Protein 1
Amino acid sequence: MKNNEGFSLLEVIITISLAGVVLAVMSRTIKTGLEVQGFLADKNAAVNWTESVLEAYKNRDHIQEGIEDSSNSFIRNLEILESESLPKNYEMTRVEIIPYLEDGIRYEGLYKLKIEVKFNCQNEEHQNELFSLLYR
């Protein structure tokens, strides 16, 4: 039935249905964007923390070969000092320091650092790794 002074009932129902579909798509897009933004914020915090650990090792007077993790006093003190910048759901940091070898030749005073940072994001375990050479 057509109302001469306005829209028909069918036109109103179609318009509301289309608006509902558009709103559903928009809300899903916004939700996905927020999830991605949250993940990237955590990943960025992990990268920043990894770089902070590298800088701390660069400024360290004595480098000792081996593996250090969050149970080590040096890393634990860093975690306390920079607790605000740690990734959410941060788990642990592991640093492996080994002499640099190439073609069986050991370069005196040159070390290879491998820094691993583990954290949880969106109910999944993630890991950020950084490799660097350090000369002492």
Protein 2
Amino acid sequence: MAPEIQTNGGSLSEVTGDLNDSFEYVGIGRAVDIWSTGCVVLEMLTGKKPYHYLNHEIQIIYHQGSGVPPRLTPEIQQCELTHTFLNNCFTIDPLQRPTAKEILQDPFANIMPQDYEQDV
């Protein structure tokens, strides 16, 4: 879950309009999908869910709400393409997180199997 879901998700300040008008919800956008993409890729690479090293759900909620991204394994940290891609996906500020178009242009998203010899 992207950090902004917990910090912005349910607050009344994120809803605009008055009682006589229709309400407009603002605050959570497509950047959440980029965070989720990072989570899916991380789980596919490691076989473990993000934050698997935390014992209790409340710890996960705390880490996410505090803006602490999931830890990357040493193998992922050693692979520059993978490390950069995931770090971009896990950018804490949703306004600084790459767009879907930018993610699709990332070298990691354009790796051809024959070009990639490392096991990460």
Protein 3
Amino acid sequence: MDHTMMDHSKMDHGHMGHGDMGAAACSMNMYLNADIKNLCILTEKWHITGVWSLLQSCIIIILFAMLFEFIRERIRRYEAGIGAIDIDSSQAGTVSSERATNRTPRAIRQSQMIKAFLYAFQVAVSYILMLVFMTFNVYVMAAVVIGAGLGHYFFNTDPASIGSKSMACH
């Protein structure tokens, strides 16, 4: 088709789909850095453009790391509660009939499902924290560590459990 005779004066060729060319791009570093601009966390939508957005992001990351510690503590308490029922059930002479009947196969499956869900949620949160940490930004890394420490302080009620589990990806 020959388009030489067509009138193109009313067509807008201004941006041609390159509207984001002027916007700052995310920087991705594979080394420690202290950048406070053009840092993206997990996705391009979570874009740090300055001190204020970095501060807001660090607060969110601290809360997320605290959530990880909260989940760990809930799992520990849930497992301790299930363990106490199992111990009581194994001591037939000291068990009330009501507690002994609580551990039917259906109840066991249900407790396994709850433990599996909590574990999967914990793994998901831990991997997200690992990816956040891997921005190699010292402020973001500090936020993860501070959140883990605060979460451990506020949610860990068993002083004997210090060092029993480390914060790991999985």
Protein 4
Amino acid sequence: MDNISHNRRVEYECGCNEWWPLSNLFFCCHCSKTRCHSCAYVEIDQMFCSNCLETVPPGEARLKRNRCHNCHQCPVCETILFVRAVGENTFLTCGTCRWTTKDSDIPFQTTSTNWPMRENPLEKELNLVEDQLRGFALIEKSKRDTMKFSKRRSNTASSLTLTDRYNLQFSYQKRKKTMEKPTVEAPIHEASEEVPELDINEVCSNKREILPLETLIRQPLDYEQPLRPVRMLLTPRKAIRCKECDHNVIKLDHGPCAFKYKVQYFARNYIPEVKLSREPELLRDQSTIVFLSIANQSMDKIDVKLEHQSDSKEQAKFKMEPIELSLPPADEAADLCETPLPTTRIDTNTDPVVFRRRHRVGVRLEADCSNSTVLGIRLSYRSELLSMQTEKSPPEWLFSNIRVHLTN
């Protein structure tokens, strides 16, 4: 039963022709298409610390190397360190492995924030490389701007050198200076064939003080030096936009403590959810009976039609006519009710509908699995919630291709 409830057994086709479970898809009501993380823009809305919940602007987070200066982690077990005071002095300690800043070379601090961190010896060289990359970006941007307005400014240079009637000489000289190639001030590292031999005794001088690999990865500059507390990484909060219509699909409320969505277009709330009811029995040279359950998780009535995919030649086919259903909206109060609700069951073998219970319907399909164990279904649905049109017109039929994996 655990395999049946796994969402990877039923996959939906996205607008970019990729297959995903319904829980990984979004639905854009503006262009009426399904979206996934591959065909949507994933943007960082804001950065915050998951421990102290302090929000940091993106520019300030970039300067702080995406680290929180108030919260620290243990360099050994990654547990959050807490502050202890001895008189007017404070130190950090770990409640799991009992590591403290006394084991390091950090003296006692009078404040509980801004603990000293080890400086990177290559920081100056990295800053020079960063400045060079910014200069190259400015040159590329200025080249693109000059190509846009090259037709209109044929004799701009000659006219500016003769007269400066409109005070454009300063901007012209500034743009010309930007176009110049920057001088390389960083040291050039040349490769050499002579490589010095590595002395193993220097690396493994004391076997008792050899640190685990995970600890060395967290602090690569602290080799053969006392460990220091690690600053907490900032957590990004993301927003998702549609690439085609540029509308927000997922956006949270402002504030790191907010758990409600300002905009939420999950595909599960708009597209009927199809699941396997029981494990199918595959028999050779015989048709297979497949039991599916269809649920409507939206807040409006939805019409559903199940039929075979005409363009799927390599998938299994079901030997039945199209099934048309009408599902009522989901009722959260009824799901919380403790009294059991009656379930309508159909005992006839000709009717494809097996049971009806609120917004869920069970259907029975007869499939031919001689060529493949993947059942291809074309799911058509229509509802008033699927479109953002203001005109009073009947809802249009939308469809999604589904493939059901009959074997795990």
